[in-house]
Amino acid sequence: MASSGRLSVLVRAGAAVAATALLTLASVAPSSASTELNGLWGPFTRCPVDDPAMLAADGATDVAICISSGSASGSIKLGSSQVPTGRTDLQAGVITHSNGTSTVVSPAGGALIADPAQLPGGLLGLMCPSDIPLVSDICRQLTDNTLNRVTAKVQSVNTPTDFKLLSGVVQGKPILAVPVRIKLENPFLGDRCYIGSASAPIVLRPQNLTTPAVSTERFDPDGTANAAGVLGRLNAVGADQGDTAYAVPGANGCGLLGALDFAVNLKSALPSAAGNNNVVLADASTHVAMFQNPASAVPDEGALLSQYWHAGVR
Question: pTM for this one?
């Protein structure tokens, strides 16, 4: 269903995005992780179409679009520790402005949602062996798999920035900058053990490691595919995404009053400077939904996008 004409419309509308910094967090979302959408609306379950900033887009000076990018699995290297990632789901709304700037609006709960994954080796691999008395005492107790198991979860923090639409369809250019932290859960580590924080996040700038397969489709307000539909979807699928340029801060909040921060940092070689770390998101799929011709929705483009999104809810 792709054609150079349809693709050019999407590319022209996204050109402003490609030149500017984007992706803001903290807004009210109209949907939840359990929302199901019909047809080509499918990937955009958390697009914050009811956020006031999105609703205010007029289609002329401001154009609202929805973004979704997901990966089934991957890994992130933090110093000397390799942490698996579960399924990741990045969604947001983007408002492009006529002056060449853009604003991103994130769903409630953050732009990035990730499934938890088990840290290979558990606490034994993360902290042991150790000649620190407190840590060595813990290491001796790790005969039970429940005590040794460490769950790692990538969490979104702060405001993602620097989203570039056109980078999503080519190889080797950062698509966006997304600040995250890694939560580590274990009975000894407690429930506030993180690598990275809101004040010192890990800032990932993933890029396509190979060229994705790019296509465009058009669809009706309820999500039904239609070659003459008023909405368009840009797809970039099948490429792994990665980054090797980010720095990693030290652990914080691990153990009672952070007593185990030092042990985690020592064994994992944290903090870790840029160039010593690596993230890979396997077989990523990125989608953008917008009006095929935003001018046709003036002056209510954002409100109509919301109305049509709701029309696609199952």
Answer: 0.82
